[in-house]
Amino acid sequence: MRASLDGLRILILEDEFLIAMDIEQLCRDYGALNVVIARDLTEIEQQDVAAQFDVAIVDLMLSGVSTLQFASRLREAGIPFVFASGYSDTNEIKKSFPGVRLVTKPYSGDDLVEAVAACRRTPLS
Predict the structure, then answer these.
(1) N or C end of the chain, less CB within 10 A?
(2) Of the candidates 84, 94, 96, 86, which has an alpha carbon nearest to the alpha carbon of residue 27?
(3) Global model pTM greater than 0.70
(4) Tell me: the pLDDT tens digits for 62-89?
């Protein structure tokens, strides 16, 4: 059965332009209602993400800045998310964000979509 993102409002935190565009199109192809890309944390920090998004796809580093504090805000706001990153040290992520899936780059589109769909179905810790 094909994973679905039908009707979801998705935030993508990704600083690589082409990757961000690919993820955006992938989400739309799988039914996402609205997809917003932030390439820098300053683009999204002051926004009420809980009111605007159902789920997020978070790269661990945006232009050399860690997104872990922002990910903590997402968790506090009750917004499910997945990490999508080429970052290789997963110990800190597993310790700080148990149960949050890390999809490592390079990843297939199906892997990413399944992770997003699954995190939406799984309650946050």
Answers:
(1) N
(2) 84
(3) yes
(4) 988 999 999 999 999 999 999 998 876 6
